[in-house]
Amino acid sequence: MSGTAIEFLVHASGEASRQTIALSRLVIAGWTGRDPVARDKHIAELEELGIARPATTPIYYEVAASRLTTAESIEVSGGDSSGEVEFVLVKSGGRLLVGVGSDHTDRKVETYNITVSKQMCDKPVAPELWLVDDVAAHWDQLLLRAYATIDGERVLYQEGALSGMLAPSDLIARRYGDAGLPEGTAMFGGTFAAKGGIRPADRFEFELADPVLDRVIRHGYAVTPLLIAG
């Protein structure tokens, strides 16, 4: 199975080491909110863009693992794509790790085929991971944030605590049952509604913050639209 290999700075049990992790699968989980009101708000937000409601909640989209990148810029087709901050689960060496990424998606394509839209764009991830066991006791206090630079102005685009999302064990079990997340798999865990609505940006920055251990994983990338000739 094809995939990609990414070097991460992995923090586990008080130690940090650089590790190259081979990833052969990428799964994008959608509509993963614990709160049905908040979940339906995001569904309604997408419906305003002409995007149909999901067949199930949550729902899991398979995407080529080669779309994962730690690059600081990506190229997209036209000007109809945008990012979404999400926590990212990674299974490597038998351990479950967590980081943060952006499910950058082509919104125009999303109106007629969500699965294809997920495949259209690279999926930026921060080159840093935490051991899930180190944050499990205070998982719900972890925070996701995203900032978008639009027409030269940097604005808070998304923000929320992971208490609003399905916990890792539940998220994984609904897709893989008791088998757990397969080795070499990355799974995006869902997102929050955008403040001011979904819209494209020239730059997208995202972070996962741990207020208990006082640490943050951050990453950002520029977005370069390519001309659509016809």
What would you note in describing this structure?
This protein has helices at 36-47, 107-110, 114-120, 132-135, 168-176, and strands at 4-12, 15-23, 25-30, 59-63, 68-69, 73-77, 81-82, 85-92, 95-102, 105-106, 123-124, 128-131, 143-150, 153-161, 185-188, 203-210, 215-226. It has one domain: Fumarylacetoacetase-like, C-terminal domain (Fumarylacetoacetate hydrolase, domain 2, Alpha-Beta Complex). It has 230 residues and is an alpha+beta fold. The radius of gyration is 16 Å and the shape is globular. A hairpin with a 4-residue loop joins strand 16 (203-210) and strand 17 (215-226). This is DUF2848 domain-containing protein.
The CATH superfamily is known as Fumarylacetoacetase-like, C-terminal domain
DSSP helix fraction: 10-25%
Q: Architecture, according to CATH?
A: Alpha-Beta Complex
Q: Write down the overall mean pLDDT.
A: 94
The largest beta-sheet arranges its strands as 2-1-12-9-8-15-3-4
Could you tell me how far the N terminus lies from the C terminus, measured between alpha carbons in angstroms?
Answer: 33 Å
Main β-sheet: number of strands, strand sense, barrel status? 8 strands, mixed
CATH topology: Fumarylacetoacetate hydrolase, domain 2
Estimate what percentage of residues fall within beta strands: 35-45%
Brief description of this entry?
By secondary structure, the protein is an alpha+beta fold. Helix content is 16%, strand content 45%.
Task: Provide tags for this entry.
230 residues; Fumarylacetoacetate hydrolase, domain 2; 8-stranded mixed β-sheet; 5-stranded mixed β-sheet; globular; DUF2848; DUF2848 domain-containing protein; catalytic activity
